[in-house]
Every structure is written in structure tokens, then in C-alpha cells.
Write a structure and sequence with these properties.
CATH architecture of the largest domain: Alpha-Beta Barrel
CATH class of the largest domain: Alpha Beta
Number of helices: 8
Helix content: 40-55%
Shape: globular
CATH topology of the largest domain: TIM Barrel
Radius of gyration: 19 Å
Order of helices and strands: HHEHEHEHEEEHEHH
Length: 256
């Protein structure tokens, strides 16, 4: 049986296991600790999905970090709707961070300065101090695990992440990193056995993969694409009055 069953009910079980471990904490609290359990979420495609997962966590009296892109073709972090969602996620007690897209950058200094500048813009427009970042699809050449921006947490900094190339499930690391990237568990599984086995664990969980019902990779992308289609239709209805005259004909052609 595939252990990756990304339903909200199963996620609640993961949250409870995190809490029962006694090691779960926020990034600043983990500094100089002999044991910790960390979690952050990279928001790749949908702030709606991030908001839904944040609600699940809030219902479990659990807070985490949501890393948001601001140069993403999949969503506009600064739209009125998405700004409202981000504020509501923060109001639940969650931390808001920057998920920095390299956009082809390969030089350390360019990435460091880009992160610094985007953090400033994001904080100013959001009206909330954005005090942490993660790098989207990092490459070794930019030394993403060594980037320092004063007063800001690098979730992949050496205090929270052990850098190692060609990691496998059996690689010995000071800080165990486990992620649901590619819609599967990589390098471990969030059960009590794993949480007790390693003194320091860092989880990355993507909200896009999770929903009311567990689904496979096809189901995940189908759900997100349907969400984006509906969002675009609503936008066109609101922005262009004559769109309603041809909307049904367009949608009928799509369904053929």
C-alpha cells in the first residue's frame, strides 16, 4: 500500500504525531536545541489550498510556516483575494515566509540580493513582517543553504538543514529532511517511529497535494487546473461584461 495518502484526515493524524513527539517547535526556538521537529509549507500553485490546510492546522491548535512566491505564474500573491487569504492565514497564528523563485539565477550574490529585495517588497505590501524564506527548486551553485539575510530565517540554513548531495533514505544526517515532493514521501515517513528515531527532523509538506480526499498525481493536478479555470472565468465575468455572451460557447468547445 502506498503510504502517501494526502487527505486532511490523514494530515490531522500527522499533526497529532508531531505534537505527541514533544519536539515540534518554530524555527527560532530550534536554535541550539539538541532535539527538534520543524515544518514548513512551500506554496507552489494555490493559495486556496494553502488556506484550506492552514484551517486544518488551526482546528488542531497547531501553527506552521507558509512560504509564498511573489514571482509565480500560477497565482498572484498581491491580488485582493490572495492578500486576504494570506492575512487570514497569518491571523490563525501561522508564520508567513517568502518562497523565492530563482527564475534562472545562478549566482549566489544575485539570489541573496533578490531574496532581500523581495522580502522588503512582500513585507511592505502585506503589512506583516516576513521573517523567513525558502528557495524554490534550489541548485547547488547558488549555495542556498548558506544564504544569510540579517534578521531573517533561512529555513535551509545549517541550523535547520543538513546539506548533502545524493541523499537516500539511509543517508546519515544530523538533521533528517523529509518531504512530500513529487506527490510522495521522500527520505522518510511522518510516523511515531520516524519522529522518535531522529533527534532533529525537518519536514517540507506542500499544501497543493492535500485535500478532503486523498488523490493521486493526476487527481492533484486535475483539481488545481479546475480551480484555476473557475478563477479565470470569475475574473473575466467581473472584468469584461461581454464575456458572458460567449462563455457558454467556449466552455462547450472545451468539453468536446
Amino acid at each position: 500500500m502506498d503510504k502517501f495518502q494526502p487527505s486532511y484526515d490523514n494530515y490531522r493524524k500527522i499533526i497529532r504525531a508531531f505534537k505527541e513527539s514533544g519536539k515540534y517547535m518554530d524555527f527560532p526556538d530550534a536554535l541550539d536545541k539538541e532535539e527538534f521537529l520543524l515544518l514548513h509549507h512551500d506554496v507552489e500553485f494555490s493559495l486556496d489550498k494553502a488556506y484550506a490546510l492552514a484551517k486544518v492546522e488551526a482546528e488542531e491548535e497547531f501553527v506552521s510556516s507558509y512560504m509564498v512566491q511573489i514571482t509565480n505564474n500560477a497565482y498572484n500573491a498581491f491580488s485582493k483575494k490572495n492578500m486576504t487569504l494570506i492575512h487570514e492565514i497569518a491571523d490563525m497564528g501561522h508564520h508567513i515566509g517568502l518562497h523565492y523563485h530563482l527564475n534562472g539565477q545562478t549566482e549566489y550574490e544575485d539570489v541573496r540580493d533578490g531574496i532581500r529585495d523581495q522580502l522588503r517588497v512582500f513585507s511592505e505590501l502585506l503589512g506583516i513582517k516576513v521573517d523567513r524564506f525558502s528557495v524554490h527548486r534550489p541548485i547547488p551553485e547558488v549555495y542556498y543553504h548558506k544564504i544569510v539575510v540579517p534578521g531573517v530565517i533561512n529555513t535551509y540554513g545549517p541550523d535547520f538543514f543538513t546539506y548533502c548531495e545524493d541523499v537516500t533514505d539511509t543517508t546519515e544526517l544530523e538533521i533528517r529532511y523529509i518531504t512530500d515532493s513529487k506527490h510522495r514521501w521522500n527520505y522518510g515517513y511522518p510516523d511515531a517511529e520516524t519522529l522518535n528515531k531522529y533527534k532533529k527532523v525537518h519536514f517540507l509538506i506542500h499544501p497543493d497535494s492535500w485535500g478532503e480526499q486523498a488523490c493521486d498525481l493526476y487527481g492533484m493536478f486535475d483539481t488545481i487546473l479546475r480551480e484555476k479555470n473557475e478563477e479565470m472565468i470569475k475574473t473575466m465575468n467581473g472584468e469584461f461584461q461581454r464575456f458572458s455572451e460567449i462563455k457558454d460557447r467556449i466552455l462547450k468547445n472545451w468539453r468536446r
